Input
Amino acid sequence: MAAAETPDETTVGLGGHPADAAVETIHRELTAFARRARASAGRMHPELSLVSYTLLGHLEERDGLRATDLAAHYALDKSTVSRQVSALERAGLIERRVDPDDQRVQVLHLTEAGRHILGQVTESRRAAFRERLAGWPAQDLIRFAAYLERYNAWPGGEPDRAAPRDTYGGRGTH
Amino acid sequence: MAAAETPDETTVGLGGHPADAAVETIHRELTAFARRARASAGRMHPELSLVSYTLLGHLEERDGLRATDLAAHYALDKSTVSRQVSALERAGLIERRVDPDDQRVQVLHLTEAGRHILGQVTESRRAAFRERLAGWPAQDLIRFAAYLERYNAWPGGEPDRAAPRDTYGGRGTH
DNA sequence: CTTGCTGGTTGCACAATACAACTCCGCTAC
DNA sequence: GTAGCGGAGTTGTATTGTGCAACCAGCAAG
Output
C-alpha cells in the first residue's frame, strides 16, 4: 500500500496532468467537506459539538491522555483544549485526575456517561455516513478509507505527542 | 468500537466486515480532517478565511451565483452568507449586481482583485496539498479524488439550489 | 391592493478559537 | 537548600463564524 516509489514528481508536480487535476479536486472536495462537517455535526447533536465529540472519541481510543496531547494532536491551542475539557468535565462526560507522577499533569478519562453519550453520537453519525456510503462497493470503501488514513497520517499532520508540527511553517503568516 | 454492530448490512456490507470498518475509518478520518482544516487554513492565509476562500472559489467556477445559492450549497444560513459576501465586497474581491430579471436577487461576480487573490491562495494551498500528496501514485490520486467527489455529491449533501436538506432532519434547536 | 412567498440584511447571542499573561509544579544549577 | 527555567493548565480578552428571528423589499396571485 505504501507505494513508496513513484518518486516522479512528474506525476503530481506538473500542471495539466490528470494527477494535478486530481490534487486540485482533492483539495476542493476536502475543503468543501470541512465546511459542512461542522454545521451538520452541530445540527445532529446539539449536545456534543464536533470538537467535543472528537476529543471524546480520542479519549475513548486512548484513555488517560493529557490535555496537551489533545492540543498537539488537533493543532489546537492549549487554552482551547482547556476550556473544552472543562466543559466536558462540567457535563460529567470526562474526569480529570492529577497524574501521581507529575502533579502538573491532568490525566483525562471518559466517565460512564461520557462513554454512553459518545456511543449514541457515534452511532447516529455512523448511520449517516453509512447511509451516504451505501451502494459503494466494499472495495471502494476500503480504498477510500485507506486513502484518507494515508492522507491524514502525513508526518507533521498528526504530530502525536512530542511533535514538531512545522508543517505549517510554525506560527503562520506564511 | 465496532462492538455492538447492528448488522443492517444490506447497506454497505456485513457487520464486522472490512467494509464496515472502512465506513468507520472514513467517518473518523474525515472528521479529523475537518477539525484541522479550518485551523491550518487560517494560519496559511490570514487574508482569506476558509469560508471566504471557499465562497470565492465557488464563484470562480460559476460566476453569477446568488447568495442563496451559496447558502444552499454550503448549508449555511443566509445571514452568514450575507455577511461573508459583504465582507468580500468590502474587500473588493467580488461585486454584487442586481439581477435585472428580479430586483430582489443579487448576482455575484469575482472582481479582478478577487480572481488574483484567489489565484494566489489557491496556488499556495495547492502547493501544500501537493506536498502532502507527493509520492502518491497518480492512479491513487485520481481514485481518491473520485471518491471524494462521489462522497460529496451525495444527493442530500449538496442540494444545489432548492435544497430540502432534510438529510439531518432534526432541527436541533440549538 | 392585500396576501403571501422569496432573497437579503441586521440585531443579538453564542461557540470556538487564538494569544498573552499568569499560576503551579518539577527539575536543574548553584 | 534556594533560585531560576521550562512545561502544563487556566483565565482574560478579542475575533470570527455561525444561527435564529425579526425585518425590509420585490415579485406573483387573489
Chain A touches chain B through 81 residues (CB under 8 Å).
